[in-house]
């Protein structure tokens, strides 16, 4: 009987095992996760869960009974120590487990501040796991002073929640503007104004020199010479792919675990899906850090384990919730040379990224129609005239029929 072993118990793993069973796979399935919980949603951790609006059980992607009912061995709190490709086994706490197909769904890990600048002081947090947020929650008291390092989406979402909880929030971004790596100046400006309006002390072009404190963080020195008193710190300076175990096993890596268009690694008995995997797209290897990608890749690998011989076509989409604004993003803006702004009034706004006359991506703020139409246009390879998009009187849905 064929045995599938999955390393990692996140979104990609949950999607993969559900797909296998729904497609009639009758072999053995075992999942090994190093956290004590079954697969759960990560996006709500720093939002609804931290705010107390979502109970722990609602985070779970599937009820715990799902895995037992579908004959999926879910081993939580079980970190995999090594992979022996020749023997086709993994080692977990001295136990060797055989596999026919091995799938890495090892996700990604947050970058942490170096200990040399105070990164190992107590009260310095990242936002990635339930444990991270549970450790942070007691510090989120009305009036507490929090420093957020990093002006990407993680940092901005943390700032929004902290502000809603009544904390005094300072956010520093070393780059010239927030979201500089991922969004146009127009989108940066929109969210800068939003956070400033909610009382966030947002400092761009200003980095962290070092954190200070006697065991517990109590202060921060910034690159502009400012010294701040802080009660705790949230670090949002990016993530790195979880590829160390694969690399040690001799699997090829390239900005993550390198896979082909079907999700196979350099060892054709081994696959990878989700944040940890880099896949071919338009001639280059790329990674996507999103729920949608984890779901799609998990299902792709499941299909191909069962012989579908299906190639991956990425359909990038992302979202971010900040205060009363829901940002939805479709496509990838890499290579854009202009941004078309569509302002429909009443806080409904979208930014459309073009390279010449080709539509690449859309940032939609409280504009679900703009997001939906933009996503469908991009996936269909259609590029409406920029002047039509910019005109708020244009019926966006009509653009789909053009």
Automatic annotation (TrEMBL):
Pfam families membership: Pyr_redox_2, Reductase_C
Secretion signal span: none
GO cellular component terms given for this protein: cytoplasm
Keyword ATP-binding: no
Domain FAD/NAD(P)-binding: 3-298
Cofactor needs: FAD
The Reductase C-terminal domain, residue ranges: 317-400
Keyword line: FAD, Flavoprotein, Oxidoreductase
Gene Ontology molecular function terms on file: ferredoxin-NADP+ reductase activity; oxidoreductase activity, acting on NAD(P)H
Protein name per the record: Ferredoxin--NAD(P)(+) reductase fdr
Organism phylogeny: Bacteria, Pseudomonadati, Pseudomonadota, Alphaproteobacteria, Rhodobacterales
